[in-house]
Amino acid sequence: MKKMTLFKVLVVLVLCVVGVGFYRGWFVLSSHGGDGGNKVEVNLTVDPDKAKEDAQAMETKVRGLTGNAAEETPSSSAEDGVKLNDE
Fold first, then answer.
1. Confidence check: pLDDT of 75 > 80
2. What are the helix (H) ranges across 1-87?
3. What is the sign of the dihedral through the CA atoms of 70, 74, 76 and 82?
4. Which of residues 17 and 80 earns the better pLDDT score?
5. Residue 37 to residues 28, 31, 46, 47, Cα–Cα distance (Å)
6. 25 with 47: CB under 8 angstroms?
7. How many domains is the chain built from?
8. What is the pLDDT of residue 69?
9. 79: in domain
10. Cβ(41)–Cβ(32) under 8 Å?
11. What percent of the chain is modeled with pLDDT above 70?
12. Residues 6+ apart with CB under 8 A from 54
C-alpha cells in the first residue's frame, strides 16, 4: 500500500513540474501539418537555459528573503555587549 501512495505522489510531482515547465516556457509543443496528407509532425522543444535562468532567479529571491530574516533575528547576548556576572 505504501508503494502505491509513493507512486501517486511521484506522478503528481511530475505533473506539477511539467505544468510549471509549460507555463514558464521550459517546454514548447509545436505541430506542422503534412502536405495534404494525414501526417502531422509534433515537436517538443526543451529550453534548459530558460529553466536555469528561472532557477537562478528563484535562488536569488530565496537568498534575499533568508538574508533579511537573518538580519531581523536578535543576536546573541555576547555580541550585544552584555557582560556575564563572572567577567
1. no
2. 2-24, 48-72
3. positive
4. 17
5. 24, 14, 28, 30
6. yes
7. 1
8. 61
9. no
10. yes
11. 75
12. 24, 26
* Model confidence band, residue 33 (pLDDT cutoffs 50, 70, 90): confident
Q: Which three cell numbers stand for residue 22?
A: 509549460
**Which 3 state secondary structure label does DSSP give 30?**
strand
Set of cell numbers at residue 30: 509545436
C-beta of residue 26 within 8 angstroms of C-beta of residue 50: yes
**Cα Rg of the chain, angstroms:** 25
76 part of a folded domain? no
In a domain, 81, yes or no: no
Spatial neighbors of 19 by CB under 8 A, at least 6 apart, are none
- For 23-62, b/e burial (b = at least 16 CB within 10 A) is eeebbeeeeeeeeeeeeeeeeeeeeeeebeeeeeeeeeee
Domain boundaries, position 41: 2-71
Q: Scanning the structure block, which residue is given the C-alpha cell 509543443?
A: 29
Residue type, 12: V
